[in-house]
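User: If only I could read backbone structure tokens as easily as an amino acid sequence. Those tokens are not coordinates but codes from a learned vocabulary of shapes. Could you go through the record with me and say what the backbone is doing? Here is the record:
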Amino acid sequence: MIVPIKKEIEGLNKLWGALADLEKLGKQKGIDDIFQDNGAKVLQQVIISDLSFLPGREGNDAIDKNNVEWEFKSLNTETTASGFSTDHHATHELLQRFNSVPWLFSFYAGIHLQEMYVLSPGGLSKWTEHQRNHLDERIREGKGKSLNNPKIPIKYVKKHGTKIFPFPQSPIDPATLDGK
């Protein structure tokens, strides 16, 4: 029983060396821990999109070369998720902010990046209007002043977004897109 475990440990150590290289790249991009908060996926997203990571858990996730801040969302298509999570306390103010920044949506199958879409500021206007109406109804009914994690549907992102990955011809600079 010891021999198979030893081989597994040796294999793990070899793979861990590659993870150390990935960790070093993450630190160069401002991502302190590739195992926290989708760090490795965020690293992949900032490199492919040529955006810079904004550290911290509050606020937006990245900034482009024009100093425009971006929101990132990712989703694992191997789960039952039908949309991208937002916030557990989505208020009118937060819904307004959602529609004021560009978004980068990344679709993964497990850890494998499948597609990336960009929605420019205003690209969530139909979705945020629907959420605002739903929130107004909740407020009128005395059910609270926020929505619990409204999901941005996959279909919405694909219909209203601009696909930037896989690259149609060559890498696309998302900061140059006008959106739809």
